[in-house]
């Protein structure tokens, strides 16, 4: 999988449903992980930090609602959007599902087209550059679809890594990213890269951003990492 490919974790015990979901999500460009139980799902969330979770309500062992509750209680996982799936007969529990912190709720049997639209909505909210949105920060414009960056009207030349770094920063201006977090997001978890590599690419990104003038918008936060603005 490529590092900036959005990831989704499907937690669903029924094999046929799980595979249909995974197939469609992969067709949408997601890297998909699968879990059959709530316990397995919780484990994979910690291991893989997925962008989005599609979670079935009725699971053997730890129920979907309990998985949701636990993930929304923990600071490190609470921001991962969760789309809950539930059978029609459980519709009365809809309010309870949303109270538990699920970000969206889809009733079975669902239309795959609709579910994919809901997933894209959540993704747009948390990682706008991965769905081809245009991001703006100050005089910097990043067009994720055309893969181009302009600053003050000038086209900037960025390598693929610098482009992904900038997209990450522009999705959350002001947020401080540690080198490890940038490695996970930009290079991907499966690859071993030294954290000093991050500094090298930050240097290149700074150079590219200021080539035609303008202040360096990237901030080095001592002992913490980097931030945009
Ligand atoms: Ca189920």
Would you mind describing this structure in some detail?
The chain has two domains: 7-126, Response regulator (Rossmann fold), CATH 3.40.50.2300; 131-228, Arc Repressor Mutant, subunit A, CATH 1.10.10. Helix content is 40%, strand content 21%. The protein contains eight helices and eleven strands. The protein has helices spanning 15-27, 38-48, 64-73, 94-99, 112-126, 160-171, 179-187, 195-210; strands at 7-11, 31-35, 52-56, 82-87, 104-108, 134-137, 140-143, 148-151, 154-156, 218-221, 225-228. The strands form three sheets. It has a five-stranded parallel beta sheet with strand order 2-1-3-4-5, sandwiched between helices. The protein has a four-stranded antiparallel beta sheet with strand order 6-7-8-9, covered by helices on one side. Strand 1, helix 1 and strand 2 (31-35) form a beta-alpha-beta unit. Helix 6 (160-171) packs across helix 7 and helix 6 packs across helix 8 (195-210). The relative contact order is 0.11. It binds calcium ion (CA). Residues 13-14, 56, 58-59 line the site of calcium ion.
């Amino acid at each position: 999988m490529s590092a900036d490919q959005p990831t989704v974790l499907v937690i669903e015990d029924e094999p046929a449903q799980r595979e249909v979901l995974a197939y469609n999500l992969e067709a949408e460009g997601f890297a998909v992980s699968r879990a059959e139980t709530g316990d397995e799902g919780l484990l994979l969330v910690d291991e893989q930090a997925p962008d989005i979770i599609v979670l079935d309500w009725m699971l053997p062992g730890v129920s979907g609602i309990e998985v949701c509750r636990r993930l929304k209680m923990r600071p490190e996982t609470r921001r991962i959007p969760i789309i809950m799936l539930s059978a029609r007969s459980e519709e009365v529990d809809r309010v309870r599902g949303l109270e538990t912190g699920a970000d969206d709720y889809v009733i079975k049997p669902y239309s795959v087209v609709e579910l994919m639209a809901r997933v894209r909505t959540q993704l747009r909210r948390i990682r706008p550059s991965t769905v081809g949105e245009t991001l703006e920060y100050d005089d910097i414009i990043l067009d994720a679809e055309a893969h181009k960056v302009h600053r003050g009207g000038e086209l900037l030349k960025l390598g693929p890594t610098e482009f992904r770094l900038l997209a990450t920063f522009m999705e959350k201006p002001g947020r401080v990213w540690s080198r490890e977090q940038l490695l996970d997001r930009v290079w991907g978890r499966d690859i071993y890269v030294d954290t000093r590599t991050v500094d090298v690419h930050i240097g290149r990104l700074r150079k590219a951003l200021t080539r035609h003038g303008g202040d360096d918008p990237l901030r080095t936060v001592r002992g913490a990492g980097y931030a945009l603005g």
